[in-house]
Write a structure and sequence with these properties.
about 90 residues; alpha+beta; three-stranded antiparallel β-sheet; 3 helices; 3 strands; about 15% strand
C-alpha cells in the first residue's frame, strides 16, 4: 500500500508525515511502529521527512536514510519521484 495524500496548499505542516503514520498504525512514535510492522501494520513503512531524508521501519530495523545533499534548483515533484522509485524498486 502506498499512502501519501497531498496536504492542501498553504496548510502543510511539519508533522504531516507523523500524523499519517498515526493514521495508518494507531501509534505516533516510529519506534512503536517497529514493534507492530509485519503483524498489524505493513512489513515495511517509509516515512518521508523532506530534506532530512526518510525513516525506514521494518519489524527488525528502524533507521533514518539521509537525503542526498546534491545541488537542487527545484524540488517540485521530489516526493513523487522518491515514491515512484521506491515502489518500482520494491515491485
Amino acid at each position: 500500500m502506498a499512502f501519501g495524500p497531498a496536504p492542501r496548499q498553504g496548510r502543510h505542516r511539519r508533522d504531516q508525515r507523523r500524523r499519517e503514520l498515526s493514521f495508518l498504525t494507531g501509534v505516533n512514535d516510529p519506534a512503536q511502529v517497529k514493534d507492530i510492522c509485519g503483524t498489524t501494520a505493513p512489513k515495511l513503512m517509509v516515512v518521508t521527512s523532506g530534506h532530512a531524508g526518510s525513516i525506514h521501519i521494518t519489524s527488525d530495523f528502524m533507521g533514518l536514510v539521509p537525503a542526498s545533499m546534491s545541488k537542487r534548483s527545484d524540488t517540485t515533484g521530489a516526493g513523487d519521484a522518491f515514491t515512484a522509485g521506491l515502489l518500482a524498486g520494491l515491485l
